[in-house]
Amino acid sequence: MKKDGLKIAVIGGGSSYTPELIDGLIRYYDEFPVAELYLVDIEPGADKLKIIGDLAQRMIDASGKPIKLHTTMDRREAIRGADFVTTQIRVGMLDARSRDEKIPLLFGLIGQETTGAGGFAKALRTIPVILDICREIEELAPDAFLINFTNPAGLVTEAVNKHTKVKSVGLCNLPIGNKMQIAELYDVDQRDLYIEMVGINHLNWTTKVVIDGKDQTQDFLTKIAGRSGFSMKNIPDLEWDAEFITSVGALPCAYHRYYYMKEEMFRELNTTFQETGKTRADDVKEVEAELFELYTQPELVSKPPQLEKRGGAYYSEAAVQLMKSIYNDSGDIQVVNVRNGGVISCLPEDAAIEVNCVIKSDGPHPIVLSGELPPQIRGLLQVVKAYEELTVQAAVFGDYHAALQALTIHPLVGDEQLAKSLIGEILAQNAAYLPQFAKND
Amino acid sequence: MKKDGLKIAVIGGGSSYTPELIDGLIRYYDEFPVAELYLVDIEPGADKLKIIGDLAQRMIDASGKPIKLHTTMDRREAIRGADFVTTQIRVGMLDARSRDEKIPLLFGLIGQETTGAGGFAKALRTIPVILDICREIEELAPDAFLINFTNPAGLVTEAVNKHTKVKSVGLCNLPIGNKMQIAELYDVDQRDLYIEMVGINHLNWTTKVVIDGKDQTQDFLTKIAGRSGFSMKNIPDLEWDAEFITSVGALPCAYHRYYYMKEEMFRELNTTFQETGKTRADDVKEVEAELFELYTQPELVSKPPQLEKRGGAYYSEAAVQLMKSIYNDSGDIQVVNVRNGGVISCLPEDAAIEVNCVIKSDGPHPIVLSGELPPQIRGLLQVVKAYEELTVQAAVFGDYHAALQALTIHPLVGDEQLAKSLIGEILAQNAAYLPQFAKND
Amino acid sequence: MKKDGLKIAVIGGGSSYTPELIDGLIRYYDEFPVAELYLVDIEPGADKLKIIGDLAQRMIDASGKPIKLHTTMDRREAIRGADFVTTQIRVGMLDARSRDEKIPLLFGLIGQETTGAGGFAKALRTIPVILDICREIEELAPDAFLINFTNPAGLVTEAVNKHTKVKSVGLCNLPIGNKMQIAELYDVDQRDLYIEMVGINHLNWTTKVVIDGKDQTQDFLTKIAGRSGFSMKNIPDLEWDAEFITSVGALPCAYHRYYYMKEEMFRELNTTFQETGKTRADDVKEVEAELFELYTQPELVSKPPQLEKRGGAYYSEAAVQLMKSIYNDSGDIQVVNVRNGGVISCLPEDAAIEVNCVIKSDGPHPIVLSGELPPQIRGLLQVVKAYEELTVQAAVFGDYHAALQALTIHPLVGDEQLAKSLIGEILAQNAAYLPQFAKND
Amino acid sequence: MKKDGLKIAVIGGGSSYTPELIDGLIRYYDEFPVAELYLVDIEPGADKLKIIGDLAQRMIDASGKPIKLHTTMDRREAIRGADFVTTQIRVGMLDARSRDEKIPLLFGLIGQETTGAGGFAKALRTIPVILDICREIEELAPDAFLINFTNPAGLVTEAVNKHTKVKSVGLCNLPIGNKMQIAELYDVDQRDLYIEMVGINHLNWTTKVVIDGKDQTQDFLTKIAGRSGFSMKNIPDLEWDAEFITSVGALPCAYHRYYYMKEEMFRELNTTFQETGKTRADDVKEVEAELFELYTQPELVSKPPQLEKRGGAYYSEAAVQLMKSIYNDSGDIQVVNVRNGGVISCLPEDAAIEVNCVIKSDGPHPIVLSGELPPQIRGLLQVVKAYEELTVQAAVFGDYHAALQALTIHPLVGDEQLAKSLIGEILAQNAAYLPQFAKND
């Protein structure tokens, strides 16, 4: 990779998360010397982009690092010749998320941003926009890496891998947080901890824990049984049943609660919604309003601690670690979303998976798993991946039949009449964002 | 196979289905000349066995075929030197089935004999008994074929294949009925019809229909969309949504309604149960009482037409066809349950599957599929097969953890607390039949 | 398949083999009622076509069957609307075969029509012509089956499957002869014998022998050890070493002698060549001259017994059996060349393989193997198949690099300088027939 | 791994290579602080062990590192509680190697230490001794890593993985030398170079070269075409044909010359042998005599430069790098021999392969390949691996049939009579070292 003039384009630069990223770029500047940083957004986000841009400039100024900042609505200019393009977009903004969370609740189902029918709706809206960005990368920066933070990150990565030539890595802050929590549990330095994470984005199991070279997996399972924790800010932190954890033989990720505890999770979400009329999107709106309020304060020259509440902890850590490891050909291990290629032998070769990878200058190289996945993990993983394949097909081609099958086999739906009703509602409420389905009418 | 002195042992010979089998053995006697026929049952079934034995003897006498009939409670005597052992047992009898159907309903879930938590309970009770029978076959008739009609036939076949050396074929009357219905739909002779059935027992798709050498699959899907029919006596005959069938790209089997239409099927079953306190088992008890009443009539010397109501239509057809094709090395194609061995590449090699097989003297040889399974079929098939693997593990070893995971990932349960409650109830209500779990306490 | 007006086009109709085919069509007329039979050839074969056409007409007349015979050089007319197209062509005629056999001998290697460098040269010449025929079938008879008898039949089948949409089956008379010999060895009717043949064309092992339902494989291996026989007219009939056969654990096919006994086979071929200057092609020329002399005799109205010497015994049997089984949707088992599709799991999915298939109206359906191939079979099969993949690539695209690697890894060459020299000579001596390589210069 | 009291047992400690290892242990002492170092040998090697032990002690003394050295013939004492056991044994010593090299030459075949019939004989002698060592490790040091340098390293690794529970890594100095040469060719630091090596021991291709994050594979192939170099001290350094290298699409390893250039390599070896009666073993004997002469000189306190001639350049580098990366959980990438587990999808799961691995405290984790292997690599790799499987079977069980098939399908033999003769001669000349075959007589 070229060692000077490093250029980064951040699509969705007006996001409230951006100060995290700026903070990371400043902290790691010596190892990852960004010369040109483009924050890109669309017209409706102009105000936010202005606020973020100003804050970012103050942060850079305060740091003394020679990063040249640009804010722009010209996406092509930002992408042209970039070394890295990151995306953190939200098609339809928080209002769309709010709808994604509410529609399933009306049908007695979990309404969640990235899982189930909510994540499905988000995928339909998001994938076509990301593919548009990829067309521009193919044209204007064919050697660039796309670092995709946009959710649902696994579905987006699979769509990009199947339908474009862009070198793409899907990224989530869950794995890095998970590792931190395990290191904390054992009170060891992260460097003395090796964990194996296996699965797909937001459905990922920690199947092995090695500390100082000793396999501590069984001990670890005993420790976490019956504990809460190991969750995320945006997910109710229900504790894991001890016997259940033993029977899984691995630590499920925070999002697994939507599957394994779907009854209780539904009650949690629904009770709040019935009582307040609100879902997580509404909370986020309030947090965002507060954050932008803060961001406008001229004396603020660093990311504020309140940002942590936003659910994106370790975001800058994950993104900057990945880019600097590619830049420096580091060869360290990170958990990212990549093409399967046989690593998880029970999933299709071209599926996007989330596993341990060695990060080299040509991107992530997945590491072979230490053993076969047991049936309890395999079965759930396979059916959700089949749902994802169908959803990518639906999102890219506006394929209604694929959409219908996607939701019918999804473990959180599982009924064709329900699937049909959900899709009807999703298509109706998102008509402005789903031209691919209009075309096919 | 030896051409004279053909010996068959029918385990569960006192079943109300037996006259079907006797009828088939008489009809096909010239091609499949049974010399010694043993009907075996256990002490609590002595009365029924007497009635069935007498009827069977009258049927044989009326036919003039030189089949020597024995009724016995000495299972070892029956198995010793047998060429074929068939099983049609019901561990716990209809009372157990009734419990299997009612327990899930109490938790708001489908209660069904072979599917979901009901089928799971039946598998736990049945597999150990079948393995006991297999130990005797290994000792007393190592060259015999086990023709297993006992439900859940797929789970039983997988258990036998994984844990014994017995040559075993699992059999279901659904495929033969399915083919007859398609032949009828097209008004063609069955011999001019070739269909490809793919899946596992009671979760099997018809993926290809060839008539007179022409692939008519698309036409067939159009024809069946929006139709009822293609069901079984024991399954509510809801019609398939036209758009949904198109999106599957194959004809689901009758039992698929429990998955694809789980909401409506639950309502059907639950409404009946709430209104009458009865489930299918209770109806069957009544039918059985009537049948045994009929069977005692000395003037009855053939299977009565009322037997059709029992759900076992084509049973004799399926069982006798299979045995006579093995006996005669026929090389014809039948849909039976066998070890996968790579035929369905997305399932484990040692899984039991239900597919087209060429029947030769050394048993069934699966035929390679005409194409890859699409994700909508693959995903559902994989998760249910993973459930089956775990259930076999639970049934054979009394492995509670496997049981917990089995129900947790089952599409009709899908929640670990629900799974735990169901298992608690199943173990409590079936304690007398589940010694393998007692051992592990 | 349409039940009247059955039309067959025989490409290479002027072949001396054709009377075999005519004989078969007459004998099986009642089950396979050919209405229109086209014998097609090219200008240089006009005389032969005339002789064959006249004889064929006399045979048909004598039989009284209402087959309408056409001889033509208009290939398109022959193919248009055909139900079956068979090919039995020899690009470059026997002179080319003679060169194929002699070039390798000059380098100290086995020179043989279908194996090693000779078969490689034949593939380069033949595949492009067959693909031309396929283009016409795609246009003029898209529903027709191509029954390919043209050697190297496995390579041709793989090329057709990979590069056209034609429904194609590759056919060889070796399997049918092999089965006849085994039936004879055991003095049983072929119908009581089931054998499993596994491999690729001309590299096929008999891995299982079942007689009357009993697995007799071990007994069979003992019987054949140290025997000659099980060969073909065109292959020196060296006997198999007893210990060696035991170590293979299967019966190799006749052509395996070129691999397993390559030293002795080379000496045989080379001694004859050194002493007489002749190879098999020269013998065949003489046999052909005699045959055509015979064919011109007006009193000849049936295939003459001398035809057997030609090496094509059972040819009509194999070809007509296959076509009539497709026509009648017979469902019997035949060994033919088809797309792998996972049957031989250690070979690529899209490789052409030669295995037991059930013949239905939509073509052959491979039967799953009864077990894993042992390493001694697997290793040889894999390297020869890799050679075939490269050869198909070379033949279709005139890819010199693929050609160089094909011969370098071939077990009968195995050296890159030798491969280079051989290819140089083959390209030089076959320049008129290899336009695909000229293009790439 | 325990951070103090690190114990290493070196089986075959009297080898002339040992000073290399001592040198490495001293140089890397700070990162890999060996406390106890056992050099073990057998009675006939007592004199050599004395000389080596004395030199090693002088080297350690000169270094000032607190490594405690033991020389012993009590292997159990050395192994008990060891952290690492390394082996560098030569069963039958150089006389046996000399026979291995000469027997094939007498049959007109390449005679080489690790390849072809020579390597086969070495495997038969060596594997049983290594398995004996493994039994002691299982008993006395079950957590130890076996670092196996003994040739044929791939075959030994496969035998250990299949037949013991020992954690084993097979090691060769070829990959490290290969990487150094490529770094030199491009004049870059090794740290800026990433290469992908794929294959099995001594049959390994460099399929990808990345420099500073740019894929330079095509450029690299152009550069190496027509060059000599990239060889080893013990292999004639014939240059690669430019067109041939292009057609491979990868850099073959030095040992590939025995396959790809088998004719010329045979001539080289045979000419020397005919002229001098000597093979490489005889040269090595002379070098060894000189080395031991040097080693006895009291003033020698470091490894002498003459050791490089011995063919084991980078040996200490490879061995110490591996052990210290395991010890320190480094996570760097090294090319070692491990269980396949699906990395090379065209080889069996349990085959030993040689690929890029991430070295962690629990051993090597293979990295997924960047693409499918092309047929020219796949075919050769598969047939040689099948030979290896059969050879392991032959070596462990004294299975003559496996031995016969192993050599019959080996690309450098390829004829069953030749295989039989070779095995006869090998068994006769090695009778004292092959008790497993005596048992089976």
Describe this structure in words.
- Chains A, B, C, D: Its cofactor is NAD(+).
- The structure is a homotetramer of 441-residue chains.
- Helices cover 48% and strands 16% of the residues of chain A.
- The first copy, chain A, is α/β, with parallel strands linked by helices and 441 residues long.
- Chain A has a domain at 6-170: NAD(P)-binding Rossmann-like Domain (Rossmann fold).
- In chain A, the strands form three sheets. A six-stranded parallel sheet of chain A has the order 3-2-1-4-5-6, with helices on both faces.
- In chain A, α6 links the parallel β5 and β6 (167-170).
The chain-level structural class of chain A is alpha/beta
Task: Please tell me the overall pLDDT of chain A.
Answer: 93
Shape descriptor of chain A: globular
* CATH class group of the domain at 6-170 in chain A: Alpha Beta
Low-confidence stretches of chain A: none
CATH architecture of the domain at 6-170 in chain A: 3-Layer(aba) Sandwich
Spatial order of the strands forming the largest sheet of chain A: 3-2-1-4-5-6
**Main sheet: strands, sense, barrel of chain A:** 6 strands, parallel
Count of DSSP strands of chain A: 12
Radius of gyration of chain A (CA) equals 21 Å
Give the percentage of residues in beta strands of chain A.
15-25%
CATH superfamily of the domain at 6-170 in chain A, by name, is: NAD(P)-binding Rossmann-like Domain
Q: What quaternary form is this?
A: homotetramer
Instruction: Quote the distance from N terminus to C terminus of chain A.
Output: 46 Å
Largest interface: A-B, 42 and 42 residues
Query: What is the CATH topology classification name of the domain at 6-170 in chain A?
Result: Rossmann fold
What is the H-and-E element order of chain A?
Answer: EHEHEHEHHEHEHEEEHHHHHHEEEHHHH
Helix content of chain A: 40-55%
